[in-house]
Amino acid sequence: MTETASRRPPMAGLHHFSPTVTDVEASAAWYERVLGLQRIPPPFPHYGNEETGYAVVLTDMAAGVTIGLHHNVANRGEPCDETRTGVDHVAIAVPARSDLDAWAAWLDHLGVKHAGVTDVTDPLKFSVLVFRDPDNIQLEMFYMDPQ
Asked: Where is the VOC domain positioned along the sequence (predicted)?
């Protein structure tokens, strides 16, 4: 007998983000350099569809951030465009507002273009630092004020 759910089952946070990229190795090097992620060897096959490609998985286990960069044989090499169906952006939480300033300085040091830190008060109080990866995927470092 199947029990009918009376409430939503629990979630434990976002596990990973997996974009398809134009050059897996170039993107992996960028994410390692910019976000300090570590590669988990070897590449992961597209389970059940191994002939279509593979993923290179990068992680910072302590921060709970994991990214699987996917190579797909059908990829035509277009940059990401958030105006089309697909990913708009990915936001990574930081523990304090001051961390956004530190990230801006880090990105400056690496020569990674960004929009600077933006502080928003309405309708919610938050701060965000926006930048893009080599495939034009928008990434955000995000701080939500708990007040």
From this structure: 13-144
